[in-house]
Amino acid sequence: MIRSYRKTDLEEMVRIWYEASVIAHFFIPASFWASQKNAMKEKYLPLAENFIFEDEGQIAGFISLVGEHVCALFVVPEMQGQGIGTALLEHAKTLKGRLSLKVYRENKSALHFYEKCGFVATGEEVDEYTSCVQILMKWE
Question: EC number(s) on record (predicted)?
Fold first, then answer.
C-alpha cells in the first residue's frame, strides 16, 4: 500500500535511506552518508512531498518529490527487486505527469532501473558534494 508520509515515519525513512545509500553508492565512503543523516532528517525529507510503501505495517520504501523532481527513491535493501520501487515511481508518474531525477553514473543498477521505467538521459553533471558524475534523466 502506498500512503502519504507521516512525521512518525521520519526515523525509519532516514534508516532506509542510509542503509540503501551505503550499498548502492559503494563508490562513495559510508562516512559521507553518515554525515548527511541530520540534514536528511531535519531539512531534505521534511521539505519534500513523501510517499511511503507500507507492507504489513512496515515501511518497505519511499519516494520524495519536490515538484516534478524525484529527490529520493529508496527501498529496504532486502526487499529490493519485488516491485516496490516501480510502484512508488508509477505513483509519482500518475501524480505529476512528468518527472526528472539525477542518478550517479557508477550506480549501474539504478541507472538500468530508471531506463527500464522509461526515463531517458538528458545530460550529466558533477555532484558538488561527492565529485561523482550524475546522469540527469527525464520521463514524460
Answer: 2.3.1.-
Q: Give the integer Cα–Cα distance in Å for 77 and 79.
A: 5
pTM for this structure? 0.93
Q: Which grid cell sits at 74?
A: 529508496
Q: CA 67, CA 69: separation in Å to the nearest integer?
A: 6
Cell digits for 94? 500518475
Q: In what order do the strands lie in the sheet with 133-139?
A: 2-4, 49-55, 58-66, 69-75, 99-104, 133-139, 120-126
Domain that holds residue 132: 2-139
pLDDT of residue 95: 95
pLDDT for the residue 21: 94
Domain of 105: which CATH number? 3.40.630.30
